Task: inverse folding
């Protein structure tokens, strides 16, 4: 029995090697791939709209008699038609037309036009509508069904794609004994109220006119939901299988060494919280398991993830294996270098630092020391990914602020430890609070630990929303706090602008603030400074030689100065809630009360105000994340720029949240009860199953 998944598109009439090559750019190789290339929207050409009833901004199919047709030569050669149907008139403009088209579009003819209506200078108009004669009357535009719109690639336009898909559907329906294998067990599908697979695919390529187009455009039609559900399941299975495969791999066993841990804890100026202790135990259990750890540690800003990483690393260091610690920014890497040094050097472990801005000589020397295991803990930025970094024996990789790194980068570093036939353990730390169901799907390849407790003595940050017209009062407040010996941050945001402009804006702001606050020492840190410049400014700030630190969002993650208890964020309306929450986490680290002033540009939309007030109402990163997800969708939360992020074909993690929990449960059931469905589901939706697993 031919299976559409194993039959090449070239079996379809009219598909030669050239079209096949183009389709391949869309990941379409088999006939099944074509069938699963689903429309991302529909156009309604099933109803002819009276011209008098067309609405600007909407697409419509109209039928009208061409009352006049004239060609203007200026300002640009244009064919202008005026059509009417008794209910009204419409102007049509064509800029490109050949002789044949010119004669089809001559006055006296009655035609159908499809296009977007705009309000023009001389009344409603359409620019370059599609058209066809009424007399033909053939069903070429499938006007009893909604018109599907597909994503395309160079050399394949909408009509060709539609024809190809029609042929695939026809082949599938006519070839004897061909069926699309349905990998969703009927019991699951029925419990969700979904149609069968074939019914769903068939319907989505040619929805009958009677169907609810609201449902279709909201992606809530059961046929769509069924396929989205399947894709979510496939995604979960893919990551989860990668995790299972990881469990079959070998890793060096590192047992917890009580005496070393005790020495470490004695050196700390504080006691670990019980949440920190629990997470450290979970990590130590993984390290001793003999299989590579793949664990994500979640903890709100300031929950103390760094010390958890350092304490976990002890098991590895005590066996004379190496640890790599990676941070997303230079500044943060420097801070980790400093902290790890302060905590671990007294135990006689050597800590090194690697960054792309070091001199060639320093870099070479550092690399040599890593190779010779003279450096046992190496802290750095993405420079740690580079080929030239070789470890003597890498036991543990710690990645801070995971959302900035992609899956691939993570795996690239993991493979650096492969020398000894063992995979290194991996610990990923993030402060991006992700709602549970989303985390289960997004990080199904990782085990998750949560630090759900802040160190004692922290008071929540009081957040106010202030219009930029009250800038003067805000500046006075900084002066008043500074008089009491406290420090403050001033964060300039300029999103979507170049880094250069951001830095320039920060420089100007710093100048103005220095003028307005003559008694204060104003510092500046931004992304275009060299790391030693940044380091020295941060250092001055830490040492209280700077009262007010003006910064771009480079201080977003991890920077720690407990005496700074006031933060002003300019134009907060431009940032996502999760990002603002992270920024705000820089204050509130000391024991006194802390303040965050969101200095917005007036006027502020009602929506933006509603968004910002979430920050005023809560300090709970998880609640903020829920809200962010609701208001902005998951792209913002997970970081759209992240490389290696998995792309969905149909699913949208914000829109489809109601399905998510069911999908995770269904995926787990499939794994347990229908294990042979896993592979085909992954192949159908994600393609080559090895894509995210064994990189
Ligand atoms: P994050 O989770 O945001 O990375 P950090 O690791 O930077 O947090 O810790 C924030 C601050 O809290 C640091 O100054 C750190 O030394 C301190 N800290 C960590 N754990 C505790 C604790 N149990 N008690 C008191 N202070 C702590
Ligand atoms: Mg941190």
Result:
């Amino acid at each position: 029995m031919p299976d559409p998944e194993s039959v090449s598109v070239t079996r379809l009439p009219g598909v030669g090697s050239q079209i096949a090559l183009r389709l391949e750019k869309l990941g379409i190789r088999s006939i099944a791939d074509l069938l699963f290339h689903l429309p991302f929207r529909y156009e309604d050409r099933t109803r002819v709209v009276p011209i008098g009833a067309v609405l600007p901004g909407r697409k419509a199919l109209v039928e009208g008699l061409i009352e006049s047709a004239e060609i203007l030569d200026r300002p640009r050669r244009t064919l202008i038609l005026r059509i009417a149907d008794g209910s009204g008139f419409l102007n049509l403009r064509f800029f490109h037309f050949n002789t044949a088209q010119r004669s089809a579009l001559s006055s006296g003819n009655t035609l159908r036009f499809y296009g977007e209506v705009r309000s023009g200078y001389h009344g409603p108009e359409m620019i370059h509508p599609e058209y066809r004669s009424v007399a033909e009357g053939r069903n070429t535009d499938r006007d009893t069904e909604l018109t599907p719109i597909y994503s395309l690639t160079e050399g394949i336009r909408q009509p060709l794609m539609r024809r190809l898909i029609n042929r695939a559907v026809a082949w599938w329906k006519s070839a004897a004994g061909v069926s699309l294998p349905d990998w969703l067990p009927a019991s699951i599908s029925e419990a969700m109220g979904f149609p069968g697979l074939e019914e769903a695919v068939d319907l989505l390529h040619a929805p009958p006119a009677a169907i609810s187009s609201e449902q279709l455009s909201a992606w809530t039609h059961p046929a769509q939901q069924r396929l989205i559900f399947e894709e979510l399941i496939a995604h979960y299975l893919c990551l989860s299988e990668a995790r299972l495969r990881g469990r079959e791999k070998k890793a060096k066993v590192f047992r917890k060494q009580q005496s070393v841990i005790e020495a470490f804890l004695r050196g700390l100026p504080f006691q670990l919280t019980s949440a920190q202790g629990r997470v450290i135990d979970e990590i130590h259990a993984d390290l001793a398991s003999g299989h590579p750890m793949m664990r994500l540690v979640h903890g709100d800003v300031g929950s103390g993830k760094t010390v958890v990483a350092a304490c976990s690393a002890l098991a590895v260091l005590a066996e004379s294996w190496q640890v790599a610690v990676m941070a997303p920014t230079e500044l943060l890497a420097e801070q980790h270098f400093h902290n790890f040094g302060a905590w671990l050097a007294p135990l006689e472990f050597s800590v090194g630092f690697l960054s792309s801005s070091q001199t060639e000589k320093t870099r070479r020397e550092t690399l040599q020391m890593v190779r010779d295991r003279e450096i046992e803990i190496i802290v750095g930025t993405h420079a740690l990914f580079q080929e030239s970094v070789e470890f003597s024996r890498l036991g543990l990789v710690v990645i801070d602020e995971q959302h900035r790194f992609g899956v691939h980068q993570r795996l690239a570093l993991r493979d650096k430890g492969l020398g000894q036939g063992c995979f290194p353990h991996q610990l990923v730390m993030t402060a991006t609070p992700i709602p549970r169901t989303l985390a289960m799907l997004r990080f199904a390849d990782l085990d998750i630990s949560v630090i759900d407790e802040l160190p004692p003595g922290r008071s929540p940050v009081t957040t106010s929303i202030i219009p930029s017209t009250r800038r003067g009062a805000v500046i006075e407040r900084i002066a008043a706090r500074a008089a009491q010996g406290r420090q403050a941050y001033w964060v300039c945001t300029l999103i979507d602008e170049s880094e250069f402009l951001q830095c320039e804006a920060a420089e100007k702001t710093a100048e103005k603030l220095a003028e307005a606050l003559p008694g204060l020492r104003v510092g500046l840190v931004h992304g275009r400074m060299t790391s030693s410049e940044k380091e020295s400014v941060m250092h001055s700030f830490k040492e209280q030689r700077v009262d007010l630190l003006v910064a771009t969002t480079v201080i977003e993650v991890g920077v720690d100065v407990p005496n700074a208890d006031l933060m002003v964020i300019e134009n907060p309306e431009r940032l996502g809630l999760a990002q603002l929450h992270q920024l705000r986490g820089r204050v509130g680290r000391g024991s006194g009360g802390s303040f965050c002033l969101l200095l917005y540009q007036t006027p502020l939309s009602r929506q933006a105000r509603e968004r910002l007030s979430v920050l005023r109402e809560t300090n709970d990163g998880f609640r903020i994340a829920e809200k962010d997800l609701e208001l902005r969708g998951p792209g913002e939360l997970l970081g759209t720029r992240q490389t290696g992020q998995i792309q969905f074909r149909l699913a949208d993690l914000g829109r489809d949240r109601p399905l998510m929990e069911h999908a995770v449960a269904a995926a787990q059931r499939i794994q347990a009860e229908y294990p042979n469905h896993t592979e085909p589901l992954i192949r159908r939706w994600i393609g080559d199953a090895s894509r995210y697993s064994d990189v």
